[in-house]
Amino acid sequence: MANESCDKSKCASCDLDCPSRKSPQDLREPPNKLSSIKHVIGIISGKGGVGKSLVTSLLAVSLQKRGFRVGILDADITGPSIPKMFGLSGQLKGNDDGMFPAMSQTGIGVVSTNLLLEEEDRPLVWRGPVIAGVVKQFWQETIWDQYDYLLVDCPPGTGDVPLTVFQSLPVDGVIIVSSPQSLVSMIISKAANMAQIMHVPVLGLVENMSYVSCPDCGKEIRVFGDSHIEEVAEHFGYDVLARLPIDPKLAALCDAGQIESADCSALDGAAGEIVKITTGVTGASS
Ligand code: ADP
To answer: CATH code at 121?
Structure first.
């Protein structure tokens, strides 16, 4: 039974299952009238600096190599790193119908606040609701023309922006990115619990910076100690989709804006899982 005193505007953050519950999907916003997007995948992390944007970029490259048309909505409004990884700069163009994503060398569409600013090192000193509003605008005002996958790179944590993404966009599922420190288990749990409260399926976990391969003998050196990802995955019933090593070549490619030249095979399993879950088949779109 619904609680008499319940405030129905809070349904999205309440985990009671009552008849008057409003689905979070009721708050979905329509995309631009000229957009056509088959699937929206969120990339989230409980904390910053775990390499979430790198994982988003490599997933985009991997999906694109399978023949899908892929876009990235950089929802990390105050710390956008996607344009730099793809070597994109300058300002987005638009017309009366909306704005167009910037195109990477291989044709991945990107929208980011860093592609709106005249000076890319200027900080955006905006409060949460304004930032969340920008994410909605990126969804509603961008012309995402014929995209198979839109990857949404969410800022770390469980604040306004991931909440807005989960409520306003038709998210098919999320991938949680983490690194191996033990405190991460608690932090992954926060992200996972948020997804559960919002009724968004978790497609699986990706552990970044899992180890370093010794250049001489190939032995895995666990810089951050032993991983706890399998335990967390088992606890929640999720799959570990990938474990990425710390690789100086990857860092150099990010810095050079050449992420599309990176070997993204470590994320092929994760990309395959996205395809399987969203289309029921593994392979390129028709
Ligand atoms: P987040 O989005 O979680 O804040 P980023 O993806 O922006 O983190 O990564 C931060 C920096 O760390 C990037 O400049 C990237 O080059 C580097 N980095 C992340 N993961 C790796 C890795 N596996 N190997 C080498 N460098 C990495």
So the answer is: 3.40.50.300
